Amino acid sequence: MLFKSEEINVDLGVLLLRVGAGGMMLWQHGWPKLVNFTDKMDHFADPIGLGSTISLSLVVLAEFVCALLVALGLWTRFTTIPWIIAIAVAAFIAHGGDPFGEKEMAVLYMTAFLTIFLTGSGRFSLDRLTFQ
Hints:
It is a single chain. By secondary structure, the chain is mainly α. The chain has one domain. It contains six helices and no strands. The chain has helices at residues 2-35, 37-40, 52-72, 76-94, 100-119, 126-130. Helix 4 packs antiparallel against helix 5 (100-119). The longest helix has 34 residues, at 2-35.
């Protein structure tokens, strides 16, 4: 019986990580970019040469849509991939020359989303409700 409570603790931890990291990403980063898309699209950073509008679109997809799906636990492993790529580009290409202190939050988010990718959505997720 001792192991049953440990299993639920892991699932609760994954739930907290998914909702916390996904929710904060969505609210603090994705939502502002989405609602100000037209203001930002002409001068958004283009670190990999796709054009500012396409770069912004991909970042909004990752920071809003994928963050929402991760928080809900829907297609969790798949939806962490665009976000991991977006934050890796931001941390290591766009801000590659910056001191670590300036990209620490990006690396922390990347660590959280890599952890979610490796653990999956856990028991308390839409993945478990819909794909069981």
